[in-house]
Every structure is written in structure tokens, then in C-alpha cells.
Amino acid sequence: MPRSRAPVHCARGAALRESWPACGTGREDTTPLLENRDLAIADIYVPAKRRRTLDPAAVAALAESILEEGMRSPILVREDGARYVLVDGLHRLEACKALGEEVIACTPVQARS
């Protein structure tokens, strides 16, 4: 069972957190945490196969939710040369486009090998 990480509020806290395994699995893992960034929507490529799953009603509902509450989680993209390919979050991406946004919060991920 993974151990929970209680907040550490002392001067040694940062050093302690850095020495803990990244996933709490007990194994050493030096994988850096994923960092969110804002990307231009125009730089994100959506594969045609993924585009076929688009539900316009879901996009409209999500756009309304984003207006009221903001976007709760970033979309996932992977780098492919000079562009980014959408991995997850088609409806969020399309909702932001419908709202006239030019940038969107993304989390870059590694492509599967």
C-alpha cells in the first residue's frame, strides 16, 4: 500500500520530499513531475481518427462549464517535431476553440514506445 505524504513544514521538508520515491511505490524513480504549460491551440494537431469521436452536445455543455468554473484539468499532448499531437482532451480543446480561446493549458506527455 502506498504511503501517504503528509505536508512537511520544516526547513528539511524539501530535502525529505526529494528523497521520497516519485510515486510512493517504494522504488527509486527519478522521473520529473509533469509540468503544465500554455500552448497555442493552432499548434495542436488532432488526428482524424480521434476527431470522429467528437460529440457537439458535449462540447457545448463543456464550453458552458468552462465559462462558469474554468477548465479543471489540462489536456494531454505529445511533442511531434514542431507541433503537438492531442493525446487526451478533444472535447476540452474544442470547447476552448468555441469560446474563442487562442491558448490552452496542456500537460506534455511522452509517446508510448
In short:
This protein is 30% helix and 21% strand. The protein is of the alpha/beta class and 113 residues long.
- Helix content range: 25-40%
Strand content range: 15-25%
Spatial order of the strands forming the largest sheet: 1-5-3-4-2
Named at the architecture level, the CATH assignment of the domain at 34-108 is Alpha-Beta Complex
N- and C-termini, Cα separation: 28 Å
Number of strands: 5
Protein model, in words:
The protein has 113 residues and is of the alpha/beta class. The protein has a domain of 75 residues: Conserved hypothetical protein from pyrococcus furiosus pfu- 392566-001, ParB domain (Alpha-Beta Complex), CATH 3.90.1530. It is 30% helix and 21% strand. It contains four helices and five strands. A five-stranded mixed beta sheet has the order 1-5-3-4-2, covered by helices on one side. A hairpin with a 2-residue loop joins β3 and β4. α3 crosses α4.
Task: Please describe the structure with a list of short key phrases separated by commas or semicolons.
113 residues; 5 strands; 21% strand; alpha/beta; five-stranded mixed sheet; disordered N terminus; Conserved hypothetical protein from pyrococcus furiosus pfu- 392566-001, ParB domain; 4 helices
